[in-house]
Amino acid sequence: xxxxxxxxxxxxxxxxxxxxxxxSISKSPAFRINANPPPSHPLSTIQNWxxxxxxxxxxxxxxxxxxxxxxxxxxxNGTDAEFSSRTATLNTDGGTPPWPWGVSVAxxxxxxxEGRRSVxxxxxxxxxxxxxxxxxxxxxxxxxxxxxCNATLVYGPAMALFWRTKVERTPEGCVNVELQxxxxxxxxxxxxxxxxxxxxxxxxx
Length: 205
Ligand SMILES: *[C@@H]1O[C@H](CO)[C@@H](O)[C@H](O)[C@H]1NC(C)=O
Ligand SMILES: *[C@@H]1O[C@H](CO)[C@@H](O)[C@H](O)[C@H]1NC(C)=O
Ligand SMILES: *[C@@H]1O[C@H](CO)[C@@H](O)[C@H](O)[C@H]1NC(C)=O
Ligand SMILES: *[C@@H]1O[C@H](CO)[C@@H](O)[C@H](O)[C@H]1NC(C)=O
Known about the structure:
Layout: H1 6-16, E1 24-28, E2 30-36, E3 50-57, E4 60-66, E5 74-77, H2 80-84, E6 89-94, E7 99-105, E8 117-123, E9 130-132, E10 139-141, E11 145-153, E12 156-164, E13 175-184, E14 195-196, E15 198-202
Antiparallel strand pairs: 1-15, 2-13, 3-4, 4-8, 4-12, 5-6, 5-14, 6-7, 7-8, 8-12, 9-10, 11-12, 11-13
Domain DUF7907: 29-183
Keywords: Signal
Organism: Lentithecium fluviatile CBS 122367
C-alpha cells in the first residue's frame, strides 16, 4: 500500500479549497470602520458590520454596528504635533450642510448604569487620542480595548460600542472587538483642512 506523506495531503487540501486573499494595507483620507470580533463568540454575527450612528438627540448619537449599512465615513483630524502627541481626533461629517462630528469616549465619571464607558458621535470635538494605528489600520484609544454589547438604547436593542481600560474586564455577554479602518475612496467630497491620510484595509481584488 502506498502511504501518502501527511504534507502531501495538506498541500492537496490547500490547493482544493480556494481561500479569499487577505486584504491589503493601504492609505486613504477617508475610511469606514467595522467590527472584528473573535469568530467563536456568540456575538460574532457582527463580523464586518459597519460603525453607524444611532440617533439620541440633536447633537448626539451612539456608536453602534449595523447590518445592511454602509456605515459612516470617518477621517483623522489634527496637526502633525497633535498626531505625534496623540491628541488628534476621529471625525465624521453629519447634517446638511455637512458639519464635523467627533468620536467621543465617555470619561471615567460618565459611565452608564452598568458601569460601561459608551462611545458616541457628537457635534464638535471628539475625544483626543482616538486614532488609527500606522499599521495595520486599527483604531485605538490609549491602551484599552473596544467591546460591543447588545444594549438596550432609546428605541430598542442595538449592538453598541464601549471602551474599557486595559485592567478592566469586558462585561459578561459582551465581546471584545478590533476596530478596522477600511479605505473609502472619494471621501464624500468634503474638504478637511486638517484631515490626514490614515492607514486602512482594502479588499484584495
Ligand atoms: C459595510 O459597508 C460596505 C461599503 O461601504 C459594504 O460593502 C458592506 O456590505 C457593509 N457591511 C454590512 C454588513 O452592511
Ligand atoms: C439584511 O438584508 C438581508 C437581505 O436583504 C435581509 O434578509 C435581512 O433581514 C437584513 N437584516 C436586517 C437586520 O435588516
Ligand atoms: C481639526 O484639527 C484642527 C487643528 O487642531 C482644529 O483646529 C479643528 O478644530 C479640528 N476639527 C475638528 C472638527 O475637531
Ligand atoms: C440583541 O438582543 C435582542 C433581544 O434583546 C435580540 O432580538 C437580537 O437578536 C440581539 N442581537 C444580536 C445581534 O444578537
